[in-house]
Amino acid sequence: MKFISWNVKGLGSFEKHFAIKDTFRKHKPDILMLQETKKMEVNLWCLSSIWGNRSLEWISSPAESTWGGMLTGWQVDLFEVL
Hints:
- The chain has about 80 residues and is of the alpha+beta class.
- It has two helices and four strands.
- A four-stranded mixed beta sheet has the order 1-2-4-3, covered by helices on one side.
- A hairpin with a 2-residue loop joins strand 3 and strand 4 (about 65-75).
C-alpha cells in the first residue's frame, strides 16, 4: 500500500496542481491526503484530474478564510469506509 500526505499550501495555482498530478502519476499511491488546500470546496473534477481513470472515493474539509482545508482520496477497490 502506498500513500502520499502533503501540505500543499494552496491548491489554486496551475503549477501546484501540475506538481501534485505529476507526483501522483509517478508514485501511484492508493491514498492521497492533502492538507492546507485553502479551498472552500473541492469537486470531483479537481480530484479526478489528479487521480486519473482509477476508481476513487474522497472526502474533504473546507478551508476557513485563507487557511486550512483537507482532502483525502482513496482507491475504492482497496478500502471500505465504515
